[in-house]
Amino acid sequence: MEGIFAQKVLAGPQLEPMEDACVLVEDGTIQAIMTREEFQTSPCQGCETRELGNVTLMPGMIECHNHLALDARLPGHLEMMEESECVHTVLALKGLKDDLMSGVTTARCLGDRNYIDVELKRLIREGKVTGPNLLVCGIGMKARHGHGYVGMPHSGVEEFRRTARQNMFRGVDVLKIFVTPGAPVGPGEFIPCFLSYDEIRTVVEEAHAMNLPVAAHCIGGKGLDYCVQAGVDVIEHVYSITPEQVELVAREHKGWIDLTSGIVLDPDREPYISPSSAANLRRVRDYSRSCMAQVVQNRDIRWALGTDANHGLLYREAEFACQMGAAPREALMGLTSNAAKMCRIDQKTGSIQTGLQADLIAVEGDPLEDVSVLQRVSFVMKGGAVYQS
Ligand SMILES: [Zn+2]
Fold first, then answer.
1. d(CA 101, CA 115)
2. Hey, which end of the chain has fewer CB within 10 Å, N or C?
3. Cα(96) to centroid(ligand 1), Å
4. Beta strands in 144-233 (DSSP E)
5. How many CA atoms lie less than 13 Å away from 368 in the CB half-sphere?
6. What is the distance, to the nearest Å, from the Cα of residue 193 to the centroid of all Cα atoms in its chain?
């Protein structure tokens, strides 16, 4: 048993602050959370202790939208998806380490080639590779004529069904489809839908038959209506969602929205994409911000946050969520307890609760005051093992 002390501990799914408190960890699991005073009179008082000092101890972050071989910090990263499996693996190893050291203890991977996500998930679990615990989707399914650099082309319900079953045979956690283009559009502009309703519905039926969720890349348009109607569990991106669709999602969508706003809102990303893509983003950035802000501010919509392969930059997503109207606590929950619910792992991780995995990070400052302090992670524990201190 080890007692980890911090000036502040954010306990439970609601991240309730406890001053001068400790988290007791044994066998990789959280055994108890208590104040220093309680500790000193508890049966654990003789156990080993670790003093983290004037920091906030919080749950390890969950990156809800990652790709292993894709590294959005590299110029030409989208084209690099055509590189070899070897190159992809090398890139993945670096990204995984950067993610973990930045405080990400779980990452949901939404498309990589050659099942490297499935293999790396296993190697991480076996302790042979350093990285966050992974949730994986195997082969991302895009349309023959559609978008999705990380996906593989499909056409017709039987092709989607075959890959869905092959992915599930390989032991994936989620199925991923690419419904629309990637680039956001301006108000009233047309958004193609590459998958038919039947193709989307087929993947949903196959996944649900095995009690797995479906995540759909979808920026808006007819494809978004199809996703809601077909019972897709998580709709990714929604850069160009309309007010009517926000109402539709609030009313009828039983699942979650996964926001990846940095891709659009972060001007620092422009050097890493083509000049024409950067010009498009500048053109539609304000409109796209207003679209996503409606999601963040709608009380009937559940959302969480991911970077879409901006390794180490998950804290930026919390900053953008706050700029769009989220309270710091909501933004933090979008990276921890709500992210865990969306990923269906809240019985294992995502909050500091007795019985959950000891996935803990410490940040300098109070993230409930200012989420930007998440960029200064001084301690990382995953499953009771310390990776940074
Ligand atoms: Zn993605």
1. 24
2. C
3. 16
4. 152-154, 175-178, 214-218
5. 14
6. 24
d(CA 389, CA 387): 7
Residue 332 contacts residue 58 (beta carbons within 8 Å): yes
Check which CATH number belongs to the domain holding 376 and give it. 2.30.40.10
CA of 39 to the centre of ligand 1 (A): 44
pTM of the model: 0.97
- What is the pLDDT, as a whole number, of residue 289? 98
Residues 315 and 379 in one domain: no
Per-residue pLDDT reduced to its tens digit, 31-49: 999 999 999 999 988 999 9
Strand stretches in 126-250, DSSP E: 133-135, 141-143, 152-154, 175-178, 214-218, 234-237
Identify the domain containing residue 235 by its residue range.
138-342
- Output the domain CATH number for residue 308: 3.20.20.140
Centre of ligand 1 from the C-alpha of residue 308, in Å: 5
